[in-house]
Design a protein that fits this description.
Rossmann fold, binds alpha-D-glucopyranose, 9-stranded mixed sheet, 6-stranded parallel sheet, 36% helix, alpha/beta
């Protein structure tokens, strides 16, 4: 079948800004669909309606014909509804559907884990079986049949396998293709063998040819095996995960096998949300033309975080989920050294409880040098991007990373480890030639990270060079249009 000019795309995701966000997936899930729609395609999004989503604020309403739908999880019948809303703050009007089931989503504010224990919800298998199955019930009810179902991360991993098994004989789904995007391989749960029965899949898939990873059930594996094409969010990460086992662990075999169907597409950024010239959240707007205004944001940032403002002393910001993968074991190990540097350090994020405790203690130990907010707060993220001088991302692995791109366009120079999307977007600054846009270290070691931070601090003192570096960053073009076009190419390729 030749691909139609205007594609119909159902984008299934577990988080979307500003409704809920734990990581960059939420940003991509708003920005990419908008761009696809702007390029003339028809996009609709499906996500769960968690308790944390504000129904009134986002004008979420019922749709009579999408009420009280039913499906099974194992032998149990589950009733759910699909509610309707639209993307927020978008230039394009993009339809958003929300999967509504009180028990699995509505009564929980948290997305994947219990906020008190920090442990994953024990029924995450059932919750995301429901998300996958609801896709098919939704399409049936709507009669709107997508050309492509774009699935994201393990939460959408069962959709491709359902399409190729349970729904394969349904004439409605004959021409539907699936794309599976890996946003991060680091966090994917594996379920006990008893999960298999709940999926309702044919028994032959209760094996490594299907969902079995070792002796555990993996939805991610199913997504990787059964999707018509796999994408991930940067070119370097695509190479890393298909060539090195340390990057993809126990799905390495699948990725190696499917490497011809794996594409790396580096994310863009939503330039309407992340633009210092128009950003309504920050205290003082600025651009390449009035770069001096940035310092007002630094003042506000220092004040907000209780640090004494000093124009000559650089502020290093960090905005990240606090996990080993993101470089937190390195930061913890290097912390004493970091506190000896002539710079402030400001941190925003949540994650592993052990890091919450570590930084809470550090707050008391180094009140004049370090400050942090443990939690997620979008306006603080904007303030840090605008007010800091540098942004640290020392990730061990980084599929793409968005904050380094936000920071570049805010004239906040990134200090990153050379991996994944960080390697694709930040090039080491060379003092002699003036090439490069940031600070980059290779080895995942304290010594290497500290050395590169020191180099950044030194260059910061040279105002002229630093301004040039800021301008280089601020002029970068990370518009979504290019990546969105690449997605469209892949959609068309799988359609035939
Ligand atoms: C995940 C990854 C991050 C990526 C984002 C969006 O959060 O950890 O690197 O930028 O997804 O694709």
């Amino acid at each position: 079948m030749a691909a139609p000019k205007q594609l119909k795309i159902l984008f299934v995701t577990s988080e979307v800004v500003p409704f809920v966000k734990t990581g960059g997936l939420a940003d991509v899930s708003s920005a990419l669909p908008q761009k696809l729609q702007a390029l003339g395609h028809h996009v609709r999004i499906l996500m769960p309606k968690y308790g944390a989503i504000d129904e009134r604020k986002y004008k979420i309403h019922e749709v009579v014909r999408l009420k009280d739908l039913s499906t099974e999880i194992g032998k149990n019948e589950v009733i759910f509804s699909i509610r309707s809303s639209f993307l927020v703050g978008a230039r394009e009007r993009v339809q958003l559907y929300l999967l509504d089931n009180k028990h699995y989503f509505g009564i929980r504010r948290s997305l994947y884990s219990d906020p008190i224990t920090g442990k994953d919800f024990p029924d995450n298998d059932e919750r995301f079986i429901l998300l996958a199955k609801s896709v098919f019930e939704l399409i049936k009810k709507l009669g709107w049949v997508p050309d492509i179902i774009h699935c994201n991360d393990w939460q959408g991993g069962l959709i491709p396998v359902y399409l190729k098994t349970l729904y394969k004989d349904d004439p409605l789904f004959q021409n539907v293709k699936t794309i599976f995007t890996i946003h991060n391989l680091a966090y994917h749960p594996e379920f006990p063998k008893s999960t298999f029965a709940k999926t309702g899949l044919p028994e032959n898939l209760n094996s490594p040819k299907g969902l079995l990873n070792g002796n555990k059930i993996s939805f991610l594996r199913s997504g990787l095996l059964f999707a018509d094409a796999i994408t991930t969010v940067s070119e370097t990460y695509a190479k890393e995960i298909s060539k090195k086992k340390e990057y993809s662990g126990n799905v390495f075999d699948v990725l190696k096998k499917r490497k011809d169907s794996l594409y790396g597409i580096t994310n863009g950024i939503d330039t309407r949300v992340w633009n210092p010239e128009t950003d309504k959240i920050i205290p003082k707007k600025y651009s390449v033309k009035n770069i001096a205004n940035k310092v007002e944001n630094k003042k506000a940032l220092c004040e907000k975080f209780g640090l004494k403002f000093d124009e000559e002393k650089p502020v290093i910001g960090m905005i990240s989920r606090m996990y080993d993968e993101k470089g937190f074991d390195l930061v913890q190990k290097s912390f004493k050294e970091m506190m000896k540097l002539d710079a402030y350090f400001i941190l925003l994020g949540t994650g592993d409880k052990k890091y919450h405790r570590f930084f809470e203690t550090a707050l008391m130990k180094y009140p004049e040098q370090f400050s942090c907010y443990i939690g997620f707060d979008d306006s603080l993220a904007h303030l840090i991007e605008a007010g800091a001088d540098m942004l640290l991302m020392p990730s061990k692995k980084e599929p793409c990373g968005l904050n380094q791109m936000y920071s570049l366009v805010y004239g906040t120079i990134p200090i990153v480890r050379e991996t994944g999307g960080l390697a694709d977007t930040v090039k080491k600054f060379d003092e002699k030639t003036g090439a490069g846009n940031g600070f980059v270290f290779k080895k995942y070691e304290t010594k290497d990270m500290i050395r590169e931070i020191q180099r950044a601090i030194k260059i910061f003192k040279d105002k002229k060079t630093w301004q040039k570096l800021m301008k280089t960053g601020m002029k970068s073009n990370f518009d979504w249009v290019k990546p969105a076009k690449k997605y469209i190419e892949i959609y068309k390729k799988v359609i035939g």
